[in-house]
Specification:
TIM Barrel, alpha/beta, globular, disordered N terminus, Diaminopimelate Epimerase, Chain A, domain 1, single chain, 24 strands
């Protein structure tokens, strides 16, 4: 096997996507491969540590004693001495946005450290000014696009307005997306092109923010208000997107990920994934969940059955619904007021819903009766309550589906976790928030008491819930060692603990990105653990995560990622 040396880059917007001196490997498959001299972590409670693993083709053939497996290893037999490195099941992305991450390649990275370079509004303006101008198909209007700004980390502690972005350009439309993905900001020309004026009413489930003391839009758009901008965005060509897929696959594989989720897939995203599958360009499994507001379900309806097979690493698995917004953007729907409401909102502001109870009931009834799995975005506990109550009502009417997933479940309460267990709802926690926005939640969004309970992993386990954890990429990078570290340590950017009682054990955190994530996707029979008959989706780590202090988890290197018996990523050797 060979590796390609490349210059390190941590920026998601880097067009090179050069991956920390790593290489994407296209190795010939051996008839058999024998892994030994681990530790080998199976993620099976009855046999957590294995002596050796025999892989035949794309499947795990046998586990057991090395001497026995050597006898059964067919020629040509490749013997892989792990030399004390750890072998685990491949990591599963329990929630993220694969095609959106690809789109962000064309955007300027205006995130704050450690993800990007922006610390002040002037930094943001300067970065946007450097963005290369791209054009829409057919030589249409140029745009300047950016993604990842975070008002909680900017020195000014506010969103960019149209006046800020007019400093980037007044004759080219400028749009920058908030790190949460739930808000964005336009320059004046961008607003004019979208037809957003002082007379524009707020759309249902969204807000056009206004100038103080005026109805004139200030350029900041919340939630469904961004639809007006999306409708006029320049569209990237399909061939351009297909050509960038190998870079995107490498980006995920370098973190040990073998299965990627594309939550909230759009029409364009579905077309891309189907074409990529047809051309066999997907080296990792990609699971799509079309978003009803962006996707024509007559054209891209999920396939029947909850454990659908893949077609060249792609399957259309279910539906994504969005019930509220973002806690760090202060649009999540809470049952009690925000600690410090957004500027211009009253002291009783609690965020707002995206769907009415009637709309949610109608949608869930239809999707459950069609046998489609549902992912429901609920950040605030009021949104969680809406999902629980509507599902409870439908269950009483004989309409139900286990393994509905509550995405993020950031502020879910203990009484809600108990009812989620009764309804078969799986919480997928965005526990990376404890690091990226923990200080902001404590000091501005929720206050200390509520902030300490965001992503309540321990409470979920006590209720018997098989929870998962995720990064919501591109909101934050798909760094699985860092995700494990956040779950086990719950430490903020400033180094302060946030909710010690909710710290997960390392074993439970590992289960959340392996066997539990496979269960969430109806794939526990073929993924998530090292057992005979399952896919040979594996990751080799430099160190054993169970045998090091939890504080060191984020420093574990992924040495190799193996998808279906084939090495798809190999780190540069030291």
């Amino acid at each position: 096997m060979s590796s390609v040396r490349c210059k390190p880059s941590r920026s998601l917007s880097s067009l090179s996507f050069c991956l920390l001196g790593a290489a994407f490997i296209s190795a010939n498959l051996h008839a058999d491969t024998l892994y030994y001299n681990g530790p080998i972590l199976s993620m099976v409670d009855s046999a957590p540590f294995l002596d050796a693993v025999l892989v035949r083709g794309d499947k795990i053939q046998q586990t057991g004693r090395l001497a026995e497996l050597e006898i059964n290893c067919q020629q040509p037999c490749e013997k892989r001495d792990l030399n004390g490195r750890s072998l685990l099941p491949g990591f599963i992305d329990a929630h993220g946005h694969y095609t959106m991450t690809l789109d962000f390649l064309a955007y300027r990275n205006v995130a704050s450290p450690p993800v990007g370079p922006v610390k002040t509004m002037d930094d943001l303006i300067a970065q946007m000014g450097q963005q290369k101008q791209s054009s829409s198909p057919g030589g249409g209007k140029h745009w300047i696009l950016g993604a990842g700004y975070d008002d909680s980390l900017l020195a000014e502690k506010r969103h960019p307005t149209r006046h800020d972005l007019d400093k980037v350009s007044t004759d080219i439309p400028v749009f920058v997306r908030h790190v949460s993905g739930h808000l964005g900001a336009c320059n004046t020309l961008c607003l004019e092109m979208a037809g957003i004026t002082a007379d524009s009413d707020n759309p249902e489930g969204g807000v056009f923010r206004r100038e103080e003391g005026s109805t004139q839009p200030n350029g900041v758009l919340e939630e469904n208000a961004m639809a007006a901008i999306h409708s006029i965005f320049p569209q990237q060509g399909l061939e351009e997107q297909l050509n960038r897929l190998p870079e995107l696959n490498r980006y995920y594989a370098q973190y040990g990920i073998t299965t990627v989720q594309d939550g909230a897939t759009s029409n364009a995203g579905m077309a891309l994934l189907k074409e990529a599958a047809d051309k066999q360009l997907l080296d990792l499994d990609v699971i799509a969940y079309p978003y009803t507001a962006w996707t024509d379900l007559n054209q891209y309806a999920p396939e029947s059955g909850l454990d659908k097979p893949y077609s060249h690493h792609f399957r259309n698995a279910g539906i994504k619904l969005v019930l509220d917004g973002s806690p760090q953007g202060k649009t999540a729907w809470l049952s009690a007021p925000y600690h410090h409401p957004p500027h211009g909102q009253g002291e009783e502001y609690q965020g707002y819903p995206i769907l009415s109870d009637e709309q949610l009931e109608e949608k869930l009834k239809e999707y459950f009766q069609k046998g489609w799995q549902v992912l429901a975005h609920c950040n605030g506990d009021a949104a969680a309550e809406q999902l629980i109550q509507v599902m409870g009502k439908l269950k009483k009417a004989g309409i139900h589906q286990d393994r509905t997933v509550m995405i993020h479940a950031q502020t879910v309460r203990d009484d809600q976790l108990k009812r989620m267990k009764e309804l078969g709802i799986i919480p997928s926690f965005f526990v990376a928030h404890t690091f990226f926005w923990g200080d902001w939640h404590r000091d501005s969004v929720l206050g200390l008491e509520r902030a300490q309970r965001i992503s309540p992993l321990v409470s979920a386990k006590k209720e018997g819930l098989k929870y998962t954890i995720h990064n919501d990429t591109p909101i934050v990078p798909p760094n699985m060692p860092l995700l494990l570290w956040t779950a086990a340590n719950r430490e903020t950017r400033s180094g302060q603990p946030l909710g010690k009682p909710q710290r997960a054990s390392v074993k439970d955190a590992l289960k959340a990105i392996t066997i539990n994530a496979a269960y969430q996707h109806y794939e526990e029979d073929r993924k998530g653990s090292i057992e005979p008959g399952k896919l040979a989706d594996l990751v080799i780590l430099e160190r054993n995560p169970l045998m090091i202090p939890p504080q060191q988890l984020k420093n574990i290197r992924v040495l190799e990622t193996i998808k279906g018996g084939k090495t798809v990523y190999k780190a540069q050797t030291l």
